[in-house]
Records
---
Amino acid sequence: MRMVFEPAPEAERASLYRRFEEEIAEPRRMDHLFAESSERKRVAIMVSREDHCLSDLLWRWRSGELGAEVVGVISNHPDHGDQVTSLGLPFHHVPVEPGSKGKAEARLLELL
């Protein structure tokens, strides 16, 4: 589950996080993570053959609307390499051949 909250004032966060841990997470043996939504995340875009979603994400990234730092694009097809590299982003082609899905997934994890 993912939940988004309005941030608590910075001076109160450590106390709030500690209280959450003690009163909620520990008694329920809950794994959790607090991440500040104001911090830009590093993301890799994974794309297949169609480019409409990739083009939209790249446009939003270039205009500052995406709210993330795109560090590269990974695709199982080479089709979009020129579009991506023309923007100064790394493009990685990871082909998935019949019977080699495990090898391709291992390569994806290396890149990420």
Note: Helices lie at 10-25, 52-63, 81-85, 101-111.
---
Amino acid sequence: LETVDGTRKVRVSDIWYVEVLSHYLMYHTKEGCFKVRGSMKVHEAELAPYDFCRIHKSYLVNMAYVEEIRTGEAEVGGDVLPVGRSYKEKFMQEYLRYIRG
């Protein structure tokens, strides 16, 4: 990752989710949270082959860390994140596809 502090090596499998926060992307990982400049759309396209799915205009999640899905929210990596109405159907389809292998 090209963080605001320099380059950081992060395994894709260690990323829990990506959050948009004040024009930055915050990568929430096993090793901590890293601030990255860039576009969510670009990062979403780069991470899609690794089972990442957009669940909200501000959140992109790694399906491997989705622990629970409730009405309007999902628990990912121990954090409760909102699921946007316009993303709900695709998220549910992608999640079912993921758990079925």
Note: The CA atoms of residues 6 and 36 lie 9 Å apart.
---
Amino acid sequence: MIRITPHHIQNQQIFFNGSTIPFGCVPFIVEGYASHWRAFSQWTYENLKTRYGSYQVKCFYVDKTDGTFLQQVNQHTLVSFEKFLSLVFSDNPTDAHQYYLRIDTQQPLFTQLEKDFVIPDWLGHYNHSATGIWIGQKGNVTPFHHDWWHGFLAQVSGKKRYHLVHPLEGATLQKQWDPESQFDLAPAPVFSSSELDSLHLETYCEGMLEPGEMLYIPPYWYHQIDTLENGNISMPIRYDSTMTPHVPLLQFSQNSILRSVTNEQITDEDQLIRWLGRNRRLFEEKE
């Protein structure tokens, strides 16, 4: 994995060891960027509880024996932010559930928290609505999926393990998946490092995302993210990509996460619309 500092990024490219690499080609780690945010020192359990504990939040939960989170299918409940923080900043051995919170930009709590961080200007077309704040527990896993945008994952507190697979190896990765999982209507299988090694993928990256670092995930790269500590806080920061001929249709599909748009390399617009319609019906049935 390439590791750089913000000074290596200029004009939507990274300059590394004498080479110029455009965004979208390879993943990389930006060291230290988030460590300069006020959030890095201020988003502690006590500070968040004191400042924002009365806010109501919608948190997702699964059985503790599972730990796999996919917001399209997970159950959710409304609780105070203080209550949620008490759940995720400890192991809660008597609780049968794992918890996870996604604070979207439309929520009043996000408006309060956004003064504590700085969105980088390394790319154009920042997607405010696709950005957020994620807070979770040790053992939570976001299973393999891909997104169409340029994505940064900024780690504010705790550590996460990332697994990244090149888009062209999606067919190999998905060989054993339930067909439903290919449409993000059910979680994909959770892979261990040894299981991924056994697939003999040509382009596979694995590593630890430390507090203060930012992981860049290029469009369409498959990624699985494992949460390693309680009270884990990270931020997805997204920028629109033009790496597809049907960006508006792909944006429309994001509520149902139509993986097959890219997996099947569909270029016929009528066929794409039929796929979107079918997937929307499946998604509504799940809801």
Note: The mean pLDDT is 85.
